[in-house]
Amino acid sequence: MKPFKRLTLRINPAALSVMAIALMSGRAAAADHHACQVHIGHPWVRATPNAAPTAAGYLTVTNTGRTADRLLGGTTPDAKAIEPHAMSMAGGIMRMRLLPAGFEIAPGATLTLSPMGDHLMLIGPIRRFKPGDRIPATLRFAHAGAVRVEFAVLADAPR
Ligand SMILES: [Cu+2]
Questions:
Q1: pLDDT block averages, 10 residues each, the chain of length 159
Q2: What is the CA(25)–ligand 1 centre distance, in A?
Q3: Ligand 1 mean position to 17 CA, how many Å?
Q4: Cα separation of 134 and 24, whole Å?
Q5: Which of 12, 60, 78, 110 is deepest in the core (most CB within 10 A)?
């Protein structure tokens, strides 16, 4: 998994638009040749006010492979990091915490990250995320490796 580190941060904007085009046209070449083992549904990020310290990201991941996998986090050129966060209720207070080992996804299972629950936390957005924006990102899986996605920025959860 080492070569993955910071990859997207070093790519120049021209290369990024090429990546985006590759993504839209279906499959993005070599980097996601394991991506057939995980299917990502409806990635979206909640819109942020100016200078927000974090932004919450949601999606579903279905593990279509025969091996258990883990969603470990990811990278995006639009924030410092993407971390897997768990939500829990204790004494009437919602708390979130970093999951260093990520979200486990058993073969055939679907992980659902949604508001008020477990989520991906985009740490340190470099700009305001406005409704209608797209946030390109690379998710990192223990087994499937690097998988490119594009988060839609929405003011509210899709119905
Ligand atoms: Cu969080």
A1: 43 46 42 68 95 95 95 98 95 93 97 96 97 97 96 91
A2: 31
A3: 29
A4: 12
A5: 78
For residue 41, tell me if it sits in a domain.
yes
Burial class (CB within 10 angstroms; exposed 0-12, middle 13-18, buried 19+) of 142: middle
Residue 159 located in a structural domain:
no
Greatest CA separation for the chain: 50
Residue 22 within a domain? yes
SS3 category, 28: coil
Distance 120 CA to ligand 1 centre (A): 7
> Which residues have C-beta under 5 Å from ligand 1, the single-atom ion?
85, 96, 121
Domain count within the chain: 1
